[in-house]
UniProtKB/TrEMBL annotation:
Involved in pre-mRNA splicing as component of the spliceosome. Component of the PRP19-CDC5L complex that forms an integral part of the spliceosome and is required for activating pre-mRNA splicing. As a component of the minor spliceosome, involved in the splicing of U12-type introns in pre-mRNAs. This is Pleiotropic regulator 1. WD repeats lie at residues 113-154, 155-196, 197-238, 239-280, 322-362. Belongs to the WD repeat PRL1/PRL2 family. SUPFAM superfamilies: WD40 repeat-like. InterPro entries: Prp46/PLRG1-like, WD40/YVTN_repeat-like_dom_sf, WD40_PAC1, WD40_repeat_CS, WD40_repeat_dom_sf, WD40_rpt.
Amino acid sequence: MFLTNQGILPPVDEAADKIKRAVKARDSYSLVLDKVKQSKVVANHHVESKQDGTVPQVEGAESPAMEGNDVALVPMPGAVVSSQVTTNIITPRKPSAMPKPKWHPPWKLYRVISGHLGWVRCVTVEPGNEWFATGSADRVIKVWELASGKLKVSLTGHISSVRGLAVSSRHPYLFSCGEDRQVKCWDLEYNKVIRHYHGHLSAVYSLSLHPTIDVLITAGRDSTARVWDMRTKANVHTLTGHTNTVASVISQTAEPQVITGSHDCTVRLWDLAAGKSIATLTNHKKSVRALIFHPTLYMFASASPDNIKQWKCPEGNFIQNLSGHNSIVNCLAVNPEGVLVSGADNGTLYCWDWRTGYNFQRLQAPVQPGSMDSESGIFAMTFDQSGSRLITTEADKTIKIYKEDETATEESHPIHWRPEILKRRKY
Protein backbone atom coordinates (compact mmCIF):
# COMPACT_ATOMS: atom_id res chain seq x y z
CA MET A 1 0.00 0.00 0.00
CA PHE A 2 2.85 2.42 0.85
CA LEU A 3 5.36 0.91 -1.56
CA THR A 4 5.25 3.93 -3.88
CA ASN A 5 6.22 6.23 -1.00
CA GLN A 6 9.40 4.24 -0.27
CA GLY A 7 12.49 6.44 -0.44
CA ILE A 8 10.71 9.77 -0.90
CA LEU A 9 10.43 10.70 2.78
CA PRO A 10 11.87 14.15 3.57
CA PRO A 11 15.41 14.13 5.02
CA VAL A 12 15.80 14.36 8.80
CA ASP A 13 16.32 17.97 9.94
CA GLU A 14 19.37 17.61 12.20
CA ALA A 15 18.82 20.98 13.92
CA ALA A 16 15.21 20.14 14.77
CA ASP A 17 16.21 16.66 15.93
CA LYS A 18 18.92 18.15 18.17
CA ILE A 19 16.41 20.63 19.67
CA LYS A 20 13.93 17.80 20.28
CA ARG A 21 16.55 15.69 22.09
CA ALA A 22 17.62 18.65 24.20
CA VAL A 23 14.02 19.41 25.18
CA LYS A 24 13.40 15.77 26.16
CA ALA A 25 16.64 15.60 28.13
CA ARG A 26 15.85 18.85 29.92
CA ASP A 27 12.32 17.63 30.69
CA SER A 28 13.42 14.24 32.07
CA TYR A 29 16.83 14.91 33.59
CA SER A 30 16.90 18.64 34.38
CA LEU A 31 17.72 18.15 38.06
CA VAL A 32 20.51 15.70 37.31
CA LEU A 33 21.97 17.87 34.54
CA ASP A 34 22.09 20.89 36.85
CA LYS A 35 23.81 18.85 39.53
CA VAL A 36 26.41 17.56 37.05
CA LYS A 37 27.15 21.06 35.77
CA GLN A 38 27.52 22.46 39.28
CA SER A 39 29.76 19.57 40.35
CA LYS A 40 32.01 20.15 37.28
CA VAL A 41 32.30 23.87 38.11
CA VAL A 42 33.10 23.10 41.74
CA ALA A 43 35.70 20.50 40.73
CA ASN A 44 37.41 22.95 38.35
CA HIS A 45 37.54 25.67 41.01
CA HIS A 46 38.84 23.13 43.51
CA VAL A 47 41.72 22.27 41.15
CA GLU A 48 42.47 25.97 40.54
CA SER A 49 42.51 26.73 44.28
CA LYS A 50 45.01 23.94 44.86
CA GLN A 51 47.30 25.30 42.14
CA ASP A 52 47.07 29.00 43.25
CA GLY A 53 46.80 28.38 46.97
CA THR A 54 43.71 30.64 47.09
CA VAL A 55 40.08 29.83 47.75
CA PRO A 56 38.03 31.43 44.97
CA GLN A 57 34.33 32.08 45.44
CA VAL A 58 32.09 29.95 43.25
CA GLU A 59 28.98 31.50 41.87
CA GLY A 60 26.01 30.26 43.87
CA ALA A 61 28.15 29.06 46.80
CA GLU A 62 27.41 30.72 50.14
CA SER A 63 30.78 30.19 51.76
CA PRO A 64 34.07 28.41 51.04
CA ALA A 65 33.36 25.84 53.76
CA MET A 66 30.20 24.65 52.01
CA GLU A 67 31.70 24.92 48.56
CA GLY A 68 32.56 21.32 47.75
CA ASN A 69 29.86 19.59 49.77
CA ASP A 70 26.50 21.27 49.38
CA VAL A 71 26.22 20.95 45.61
CA ALA A 72 28.34 17.88 44.77
CA LEU A 73 26.57 14.59 44.20
CA VAL A 74 29.45 12.84 45.98
CA PRO A 75 31.55 14.70 48.58
CA MET A 76 35.12 15.36 47.48
CA PRO A 77 37.71 13.16 49.24
CA GLY A 78 39.09 14.81 52.34
CA ALA A 79 36.33 17.41 52.46
CA VAL A 80 34.38 17.99 55.68
CA VAL A 81 30.79 16.79 55.19
CA SER A 82 28.30 19.34 56.44
CA SER A 83 25.03 18.52 58.13
CA GLN A 84 23.13 19.46 54.95
CA VAL A 85 24.91 16.89 52.81
CA THR A 86 22.86 14.02 54.19
CA THR A 87 19.77 15.42 52.56
CA ASN A 88 21.36 15.23 49.11
CA ILE A 89 22.96 11.79 49.40
CA ILE A 90 20.66 8.83 48.76
CA THR A 91 21.35 6.31 51.49
CA PRO A 92 21.24 2.67 50.36
CA ARG A 93 18.18 0.77 51.53
CA LYS A 94 18.96 -1.81 54.17
CA PRO A 95 17.80 -5.35 53.43
CA SER A 96 14.97 -6.50 55.66
CA ALA A 97 16.29 -8.49 58.58
CA MET A 98 14.46 -11.83 58.40
CA PRO A 99 14.52 -13.75 61.67
CA LYS A 100 16.27 -17.10 61.64
CA PRO A 101 13.83 -19.97 62.18
CA LYS A 102 13.81 -21.89 65.43
CA TRP A 103 15.30 -25.37 65.16
CA HIS A 104 12.78 -28.22 65.40
CA PRO A 105 13.70 -31.91 65.51
CA PRO A 106 12.52 -33.87 62.45
CA TRP A 107 9.51 -36.17 62.67
CA LYS A 108 9.52 -39.89 61.95
CA LEU A 109 6.86 -42.56 61.52
CA TYR A 110 6.76 -45.01 64.41
CA ARG A 111 3.34 -46.72 64.25
CA VAL A 112 0.85 -47.76 61.56
CA ILE A 113 -2.62 -48.88 62.68
CA SER A 114 -4.88 -50.89 60.39
CA GLY A 115 -8.49 -51.72 61.07
CA HIS A 116 -10.75 -49.63 58.89
CA LEU A 117 -12.15 -51.02 55.64
CA GLY A 118 -12.35 -47.67 53.84
CA TRP A 119 -10.65 -44.31 53.53
CA VAL A 120 -10.08 -42.86 57.00
CA ARG A 121 -11.50 -39.35 56.76
CA CYS A 122 -11.31 -37.75 60.23
CA VAL A 123 -9.60 -37.97 63.62
CA THR A 124 -9.94 -36.37 67.05
CA VAL A 125 -8.09 -36.77 70.35
CA GLU A 126 -9.97 -36.68 73.66
CA PRO A 127 -9.01 -34.01 76.23
CA GLY A 128 -7.50 -36.56 78.66
CA ASN A 129 -5.03 -37.71 75.96
CA GLU A 130 -5.78 -41.39 76.62
CA TRP A 131 -7.55 -42.31 73.39
CA PHE A 132 -8.44 -40.98 69.96
CA ALA A 133 -11.30 -41.66 67.55
CA THR A 134 -11.30 -42.03 63.77
CA GLY A 135 -14.13 -42.01 61.24
CA SER A 136 -14.00 -43.78 57.92
CA ALA A 137 -15.73 -44.38 54.60
CA ASP A 138 -16.69 -47.81 55.99
CA ARG A 139 -19.34 -45.90 58.07
CA VAL A 140 -17.71 -46.94 61.37
CA ILE A 141 -16.22 -44.78 64.13
CA LYS A 142 -13.37 -46.55 65.91
CA VAL A 143 -11.86 -45.58 69.26
CA TRP A 144 -8.17 -46.43 69.81
CA GLU A 145 -5.81 -46.31 72.78
CA LEU A 146 -3.23 -43.61 72.14
CA ALA A 147 -0.36 -45.31 73.98
CA SER A 148 -0.70 -48.83 72.58
CA GLY A 149 -2.72 -48.31 69.38
CA LYS A 150 -5.22 -51.03 70.39
CA LEU A 151 -8.88 -50.84 69.35
CA LYS A 152 -11.19 -50.09 72.27
CA VAL A 153 -14.64 -49.88 70.65
CA SER A 154 -16.38 -49.53 67.28
CA LEU A 155 -19.46 -47.29 66.93
CA THR A 156 -21.90 -48.01 64.10
CA GLY A 157 -24.86 -45.87 63.14
CA HIS A 158 -23.92 -43.75 60.15
CA ILE A 159 -25.10 -44.99 56.74
CA SER A 160 -22.40 -43.20 54.73
CA SER A 161 -18.82 -41.92 55.14
CA VAL A 162 -18.02 -40.30 58.49
CA ARG A 163 -16.40 -36.94 57.70
CA GLY A 164 -16.05 -35.12 61.03
CA LEU A 165 -15.48 -35.92 64.72
CA ALA A 166 -15.15 -33.86 67.89
CA VAL A 167 -14.96 -34.76 71.59
CA SER A 168 -16.41 -32.40 74.19
CA SER A 169 -14.03 -31.26 76.92
CA ARG A 170 -16.88 -30.69 79.41
CA HIS A 171 -19.26 -33.56 78.69
CA PRO A 172 -18.78 -37.29 77.98
CA TYR A 173 -19.98 -36.68 74.42
CA LEU A 174 -18.57 -37.49 70.99
CA PHE A 175 -20.04 -35.66 67.98
CA SER A 176 -19.91 -37.01 64.45
CA CYS A 177 -21.11 -35.92 61.03
CA GLY A 178 -21.11 -37.62 57.65
CA GLU A 179 -22.15 -37.72 54.04
CA ASP A 180 -25.54 -39.11 55.09
CA ARG A 181 -26.48 -35.51 56.19
CA GLN A 182 -26.60 -36.70 59.81
CA VAL A 183 -25.04 -35.03 62.82
CA LYS A 184 -24.99 -37.34 65.85
CA CYS A 185 -24.19 -36.95 69.54
CA TRP A 186 -22.83 -40.11 71.18
CA ASP A 187 -22.90 -40.67 74.93
CA LEU A 188 -19.53 -42.27 75.67
CA GLU A 189 -20.75 -43.78 78.94
CA TYR A 190 -23.26 -45.95 77.04
CA ASN A 191 -21.68 -45.81 73.52
CA LYS A 192 -25.06 -44.91 72.09
CA VAL A 193 -26.50 -42.05 70.05
CA ILE A 194 -28.55 -39.77 72.26
CA ARG A 195 -29.25 -36.83 69.90
CA HIS A 196 -29.60 -36.09 66.20
CA TYR A 197 -29.29 -32.60 64.71
CA HIS A 198 -31.50 -32.37 61.60
CA GLY A 199 -31.28 -29.50 59.14
CA HIS A 200 -28.46 -29.92 56.63
CA LEU A 201 -29.63 -30.43 53.06
CA SER A 202 -26.57 -32.33 51.89
CA ALA A 203 -23.38 -34.02 53.10
CA VAL A 204 -21.85 -32.58 56.29
CA TYR A 205 -18.07 -32.28 55.91
CA SER A 206 -16.83 -30.59 59.08
CA LEU A 207 -17.83 -29.82 62.64
CA SER A 208 -16.43 -27.89 65.58
CA LEU A 209 -17.31 -27.54 69.25
CA HIS A 210 -17.21 -24.13 70.89
CA PRO A 211 -14.64 -24.27 73.73
CA THR A 212 -16.74 -22.56 76.42
CA ILE A 213 -20.45 -22.63 75.54
CA ASP A 214 -22.70 -25.56 74.66
CA VAL A 215 -22.72 -24.84 70.94
CA LEU A 216 -21.92 -27.10 67.99
CA ILE A 217 -21.07 -25.71 64.52
CA THR A 218 -21.37 -27.92 61.43
CA ALA A 219 -20.68 -27.17 57.77
CA GLY A 220 -21.05 -29.00 54.51
CA ARG A 221 -22.01 -29.22 50.88
CA ASP A 222 -25.14 -27.06 51.16
CA SER A 223 -22.82 -23.98 51.35
CA THR A 224 -23.89 -23.16 54.91
CA ALA A 225 -22.58 -23.50 58.43
CA ARG A 226 -25.19 -24.24 61.09
CA VAL A 227 -24.96 -23.41 64.77
CA TRP A 228 -26.76 -25.86 67.08
CA ASP A 229 -27.70 -25.69 70.73
CA MET A 230 -26.08 -28.86 71.99
CA ARG A 231 -28.81 -29.63 74.53
CA THR A 232 -32.06 -28.65 72.81
CA LYS A 233 -30.97 -29.62 69.27
CA ALA A 234 -32.25 -26.22 68.09
CA ASN A 235 -30.70 -24.65 64.97
CA VAL A 236 -29.65 -21.32 66.53
CA HIS A 237 -28.11 -19.75 63.40
CA THR A 238 -27.66 -20.68 59.77
CA LEU A 239 -24.52 -18.91 58.56
CA THR A 240 -25.12 -18.19 54.87
CA GLY A 241 -22.87 -16.35 52.46
CA HIS A 242 -20.58 -18.91 50.89
CA THR A 243 -21.39 -19.87 47.30
CA ASN A 244 -19.89 -23.36 47.34
CA THR A 245 -19.14 -26.28 49.68
CA VAL A 246 -17.92 -25.27 53.13
CA ALA A 247 -15.02 -27.66 53.66
CA SER A 248 -13.80 -26.59 57.09
CA VAL A 249 -15.09 -24.82 60.20
CA ILE A 250 -13.22 -23.93 63.41
CA SER A 251 -14.23 -22.07 66.56
CA GLN A 252 -12.55 -20.31 69.48
CA THR A 253 -13.52 -18.33 72.57
CA ALA A 254 -12.29 -14.92 71.34
CA GLU A 255 -13.52 -13.00 68.33
CA PRO A 256 -13.98 -14.15 65.64
CA GLN A 257 -15.58 -17.12 67.33
CA VAL A 258 -16.31 -18.99 64.09
CA ILE A 259 -14.22 -19.15 60.90
CA THR A 260 -15.19 -21.11 57.78
CA GLY A 261 -13.22 -22.05 54.65
CA SER A 262 -14.96 -22.90 51.42
CA HIS A 263 -14.48 -24.19 47.89
CA ASP A 264 -15.52 -20.72 46.70
CA CYS A 265 -11.89 -19.73 47.55
CA THR A 266 -12.88 -17.50 50.47
CA VAL A 267 -12.46 -17.58 54.23
CA ARG A 268 -15.24 -15.98 56.30
CA LEU A 269 -15.09 -14.69 59.85
CA TRP A 270 -18.44 -14.77 61.68
CA ASP A 271 -20.03 -12.91 64.55
CA LEU A 272 -21.56 -15.80 66.51
CA ALA A 273 -23.94 -13.62 68.52
CA ALA A 274 -25.46 -11.93 65.46
CA GLY A 275 -25.08 -14.89 63.11
CA LYS A 276 -23.56 -12.64 60.42
CA SER A 277 -20.32 -12.49 58.49
CA ILE A 278 -17.95 -9.77 59.73
CA ALA A 279 -15.15 -10.26 57.18
CA THR A 280 -14.49 -12.16 53.95
CA LEU A 281 -10.88 -12.99 53.06
CA THR A 282 -10.47 -13.36 49.29
CA ASN A 283 -6.68 -13.80 49.02
CA HIS A 284 -6.81 -17.47 48.04
CA LYS A 285 -7.12 -18.36 44.37
CA LYS A 286 -8.24 -21.96 44.88
CA SER A 287 -10.47 -23.97 47.22
CA VAL A 288 -9.81 -23.57 50.95
CA ARG A 289 -9.98 -27.07 52.44
CA ALA A 290 -8.41 -26.68 55.88
CA LEU A 291 -8.26 -24.15 58.74
CA ILE A 292 -6.40 -24.29 62.05
CA PHE A 293 -5.99 -21.99 65.06
CA HIS A 294 -2.59 -21.57 66.67
CA PRO A 295 -2.88 -22.94 70.25
CA THR A 296 -1.14 -19.96 71.92
CA LEU A 297 -0.97 -17.09 69.39
CA TYR A 298 -3.99 -15.05 68.32
CA MET A 299 -3.63 -16.31 64.75
CA PHE A 300 -4.94 -18.93 62.33
CA ALA A 301 -3.84 -20.56 59.07
CA SER A 302 -5.75 -21.57 55.96
CA ALA A 303 -4.66 -24.13 53.36
CA SER A 304 -5.29 -24.14 49.63
CA PRO A 305 -3.43 -25.65 46.64
CA ASP A 306 -1.92 -22.22 45.85
CA ASN A 307 -0.54 -21.37 49.31
CA ILE A 308 -0.87 -21.85 53.03
CA LYS A 309 -1.65 -18.42 54.45
CA GLN A 310 -1.33 -17.10 57.99
CA TRP A 311 -3.76 -14.51 59.37
CA LYS A 312 -4.00 -12.40 62.50
CA CYS A 313 -7.20 -12.20 64.49
CA PRO A 314 -9.61 -10.53 64.99
CA GLU A 315 -9.79 -8.68 61.64
CA GLY A 316 -8.11 -11.40 59.60
CA ASN A 317 -5.02 -9.37 58.64
CA PHE A 318 -2.75 -11.24 56.22
CA ILE A 319 0.64 -12.13 57.74
CA GLN A 320 2.58 -14.32 55.29
CA ASN A 321 2.46 -17.10 52.72
CA LEU A 322 3.92 -20.55 53.26
CA SER A 323 4.74 -21.55 49.70
CA GLY A 324 5.99 -24.84 48.33
CA HIS A 325 3.33 -27.45 49.12
CA ASN A 326 2.07 -27.46 45.54
CA SER A 327 -0.68 -30.02 45.91
CA ILE A 328 -4.25 -30.24 47.17
CA VAL A 329 -3.72 -29.64 50.91
CA ASN A 330 -6.47 -31.44 52.83
CA CYS A 331 -5.50 -30.81 56.44
CA LEU A 332 -3.41 -28.78 58.85
CA ALA A 333 -2.19 -29.30 62.42
CA VAL A 334 -0.11 -27.08 64.70
CA ASN A 335 1.37 -27.73 68.15
CA PRO A 336 2.40 -25.29 70.93
CA GLU A 337 6.06 -25.53 69.84
CA GLY A 338 5.21 -23.71 66.60
CA VAL A 339 5.37 -26.73 64.27
CA LEU A 340 2.76 -26.47 61.52
CA VAL A 341 2.17 -29.63 59.48
CA SER A 342 0.25 -29.82 56.22
CA GLY A 343 -0.95 -33.02 54.55
CA ALA A 344 -1.84 -33.38 50.89
CA ASP A 345 -3.65 -35.59 48.41
CA ASN A 346 -0.39 -37.06 47.09
CA GLY A 347 0.67 -38.35 50.52
CA THR A 348 3.21 -35.62 51.27
CA LEU A 349 3.68 -34.14 54.75
CA TYR A 350 5.36 -30.73 55.02
CA CYS A 351 6.59 -29.44 58.38
CA TRP A 352 6.91 -25.66 58.79
CA ASP A 353 8.21 -23.26 61.40
CA TRP A 354 5.14 -21.15 62.18
CA ARG A 355 6.96 -17.88 62.92
CA THR A 356 9.17 -17.69 59.83
CA GLY A 357 7.36 -19.98 57.38
CA TYR A 358 10.52 -22.09 56.92
CA ASN A 359 9.83 -25.59 55.57
CA PHE A 360 12.23 -27.71 57.66
CA GLN A 361 11.06 -31.21 56.63
CA ARG A 362 9.23 -33.00 53.84
CA LEU A 363 7.89 -36.51 54.34
CA GLN A 364 6.26 -38.96 51.94
CA ALA A 365 3.89 -41.28 53.78
CA PRO A 366 4.62 -44.93 52.87
CA VAL A 367 1.67 -46.67 51.26
CA GLN A 368 0.28 -49.75 52.97
CA PRO A 369 1.30 -52.97 51.16
CA GLY A 370 -1.46 -54.01 48.79
CA SER A 371 -2.66 -50.45 48.21
CA MET A 372 -2.22 -48.54 44.99
CA ASP A 373 0.16 -45.59 44.83
CA SER A 374 -2.83 -43.37 44.12
CA GLU A 375 -4.17 -44.25 47.59
CA SER A 376 -1.57 -42.20 49.39
CA GLY A 377 -3.71 -39.16 50.22
CA ILE A 378 -3.77 -37.72 53.74
CA PHE A 379 -7.29 -36.65 54.71
CA ALA A 380 -7.00 -35.52 58.33
CA MET A 381 -4.40 -35.00 61.02
CA THR A 382 -4.12 -33.78 64.58
CA PHE A 383 -1.54 -33.48 67.33
CA ASP A 384 -2.28 -35.15 70.65
CA GLN A 385 -2.81 -32.92 73.69
CA SER A 386 0.93 -32.82 74.47
CA GLY A 387 1.92 -31.86 70.92
CA SER A 388 4.49 -34.67 70.81
CA ARG A 389 2.52 -37.15 68.65
CA LEU A 390 1.06 -36.49 65.20
CA ILE A 391 -1.82 -38.71 64.07
CA THR A 392 -2.69 -38.84 60.36
CA THR A 393 -5.56 -40.67 58.61
CA GLU A 394 -5.06 -41.73 55.04
CA ALA A 395 -6.49 -43.15 51.83
CA ASP A 396 -4.72 -46.51 52.26
CA LYS A 397 -7.17 -47.22 55.14
CA THR A 398 -4.49 -46.81 57.81
CA ILE A 399 -3.78 -44.47 60.71
CA LYS A 400 -0.16 -43.38 61.02
CA ILE A 401 1.42 -41.90 64.15
CA TYR A 402 4.58 -39.79 64.00
CA LYS A 403 6.86 -38.58 66.76
CA GLU A 404 9.97 -36.41 67.03
CA ASP A 405 13.34 -38.05 66.34
CA GLU A 406 15.12 -38.00 69.73
CA THR A 407 18.50 -38.74 68.16
CA ALA A 408 18.48 -35.66 65.92
CA THR A 409 20.57 -32.61 66.81
CA GLU A 410 21.19 -29.22 65.24
CA GLU A 411 24.46 -30.58 63.85
CA SER A 412 22.92 -33.69 62.26
CA HIS A 413 19.91 -31.79 60.85
CA PRO A 414 21.06 -28.19 60.34
CA ILE A 415 18.81 -25.35 59.25
CA HIS A 416 19.44 -24.52 55.58
CA TRP A 417 18.32 -20.92 55.94
CA ARG A 418 19.16 -18.69 52.96
CA PRO A 419 16.93 -15.61 53.14
CA GLU A 420 18.72 -13.96 50.21
CA ILE A 421 17.12 -16.39 47.76
CA LEU A 422 13.65 -16.15 49.22
CA LYS A 423 11.20 -14.49 46.89
CA ARG A 424 9.08 -11.62 48.03
CA ARG A 425 5.88 -12.94 49.50
CA LYS A 426 2.81 -11.91 47.57
CA TYR A 427 -0.85 -11.80 48.47
